[in-house]
Amino acid sequence: MSLGLGYWNLVQEGVMQNKAVGFEEVGAVNQHCDGIPFCLEPALASGAMWSADEIAELCYLHYRTRLPKQGKPDPNREWTSLAAVVKVESSTQREVLASPGNLQVTKEVVAMGTGTKCIGQNKMRKTGDILNDSHAEIVAKRSFQRYLLHQMWLAASHQQCSIFIPGTETGKWKLKPNTTFVFFSSHTPCGDASIIPMSEPENQLSKPVTGGDAAGQLERRSNHDHLGPEDKRKSEKTASNRMIKRMKTDDDGYFSVIPEDLTVQQVSVKREDDTNPKSCEYSAEMQTANKETGLGRPKVVDVYRTGAKCVPGELGDARIPGLGYHCVGLLRVKPGRGDRTCSMSCSDKLARWNVLGCQGALLMHFLQYPVYLSAIVVGKCPYSQEVMRRAIVERCQHISFLPDGFLPQEVKLLQSDLRFEHSRQAIQEVQTNSKTKLVPCSAAISWSAVPEQPLDVTSDGFRQGTTKRRIGSHQSRMKTLETYWDYKEAALNYQEAWKVLRSQALLGWVKNATEYLHFT
Question: Strand pairing of 179-185 and 375-378?
Fold first, then answer.
């Protein structure tokens, strides 16, 4: 698919550059590279190199100051999600020896994306001129790939400010050893990472309610209308500081929940559709046993919902009210407005990137090793460390027999206490007394730290302002490469790694028909 950013054309140019230009060692990073004014933030490297709040604050500042008003939500009625990639550079060994008392790390936002939308299957196009998935995490990852490609061009042009140095294989690059990347998301990723246990104090009444969320965000199923302002504030704080011991899917098909104030319960799971022999039923009811502590200790009463749907034909949700509504650890597709999508949830994609890297298949033509994330930071929102780890790390950590260079990562998972100003929760708090219905922003913004056209704003998968007459034209698509499918398939080690991962952990992954990938 075209990124609307000339990405595939740059890949073609990169192939030629890689063949035509030799390699030489590059030195320390120059903070002013290729004429791009970067927003850098140095920090002393004493103890921890950075904190989750520092990463979130840097991303929020970049959003406010570097992204245009066009594409941002109307705060009176709209909200959106934000994601970004932050480059973290530490002192080189040479710099450490030269000045041991003045060690620094530099943090820089190199890619950013906003968005909440995903097109349905009926709107997919075989010409590669529409973006299927415009969730913020995916937009940011595309922007990051564009940044990586530009950095390869800098390295091939013998510019020392590149993040890459020559690898040991001819024609291949590798990251400088002092460079890492942190992924930031203002909200927990849709899908498995969003199925979070929800706690309430023992003496607080809670009434679950049903509802949907087409944007794939979380929905909280409790009614606090009977509470006063102070109690509401305490309730929200308690819900965001859940106490949970364990929540997992056992190998024998049982859904186990072992919260702090609950007895162990098991529910036999079948499938989601009752008309399907693989439909889902529960063989036992969830029962809670509340310990009398006298201290108002939280108990798990429900789970936050995700709008992402289980992939067709695979194990599905039971949808029993309360703790048993969702089954965890399953592959999911993002919801559409009446039209099912073919885009996997952000949780599933992050789990994939944690094994295959963020560079994708095309850039592996030039890389000796995948480009992995060292950490994932989530902004202030409903969050569970154990759920995030299950969704992104544990589902694929058993993978074996991967090609050289590919390895499941122990990515660091952190949460910030800073909330995104245009998040759904933040807008809801500001518009408490407003009768206007809040809706997700229809636009998505892509920003990359590259010198040419760093910004791109899209709506419904097309560049904003594209008319029906121009859809499919050079102006709406920018530049695309010939035989997109062939370029991807030619990255043999990446495709082999993807085949192994799919066969051992992500069996139900929804693959687009090849007819959608043979565009030129």
Answer: parallel
pLDDT-derived band at 241, boundaries 50, 70, 90: very low
> What is the pLDDT of the chain when averaged over all its residues?
75
DSSP codes, 286-314: --------SS--EEEEEE-B--PEEPTTS
Q: Which residue has the higher pLDDT, 195 or 244?
A: 195
Lookup result for tokens 């929905």:
219
- Give Cα separations from 493 to 33, 123, 234, 387 (angstroms): 31, 32, 52, 31
Task: Give residue-wise pLDDT tens across range 413-443.
Answer: 999 999 999 999 999 998 888 888 999 999 9
Q: Which of 54, 78, 108, 137 is catalytic?
A: 137
Pairing mode of beta strands 412-415, 375-378: parallel
Question: In whole angstroms, what is the distance from residue 363 CA to residue 491 CA?
Answer: 8
Residue keyed to tokens 């994609």: 349
Backbone angles phi, psi at 112, to 5 degrees: -150, 150
pLDDT class of 485 with cuts at 50, 70, 90 = confident
Beta strand spans in 152-278 (E): 164-166, 173-175, 179-185, 197-201, 244-249, 254-259, 265-268
In 427-503, the DSSP E strands lie at 439-440, 443-448, 455-459, 462-463
Cβ contacts of 433 within 8 Å, gap of 6 or more: none
Separation between Cα atoms, residue 493 and residue 402, nearest integer Å: 9
* Positions of E strands within 170-313: 173-175, 179-185, 197-201, 244-249, 254-259, 265-268, 298-303, 309-310
292 is catalytic: no
Query: What average pLDDT does this structure show over 108-136?
Result: 87
pLDDT band, very low/low/confident/very high, at 490 (cuts 50, 70, 90): confident
Strand partners, 310: 332
Cα separation values, 151 from 10, 49, 159, 375, Å: 11, 24, 9, 21
Distances (CA, A) of 245 to 7, 64, 196, 197, 313: 44, 38, 12, 10, 31
Joined together, the tokens standing for residue 286 give: 């969830």
Stretch 334-359: mean pLDDT, rounded? 91
When pLDDT is averaged across residues 449-478 and rounded to a whole number, the result is: 70
- Residues sharing a CB contact under 8 Å with residue 177, sequence separation 6 or more, in sequence order: 92
